[in-house]
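Spend some time on this chain, tokens included, and walk me through the fold:

. . .
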Amino acid sequence: MELLWTFGKAFLIGGALCVIGQLLIDLTKLTPARILTGCVVVGVLLGAVGVYEPFAEWAGAGATVPLTGFGNVLAHGVREAVAEQGWLGVLTGGLTAGAAGVSAAVVFGYLIALIFRSREKNGI
């Protein structure tokens, strides 16, 4: 039963974050790029003030997988690097913390590009 609650909570929280993004697409004139960037910035801000970390621990993958979670990872990385390296950590912390996720996205994207062929959509 606990496993069901864990997955259900992640699904509901992740879905709610996606609904917010979809509403921004449908109801505003913001471009998708600005919405995606805004999600990362919101994650950075909430992570910087210490709100996102407890939320992510409670919500699990529903809060860590979306772009707000990536913003939180950047903020957490900068906070740790500044504590260890001083002001140089502002420049290196986010890159170090987010490197694994970005690297995985690049590698898996490349593998998918090798497996599938791109083509134009007909009729659209």
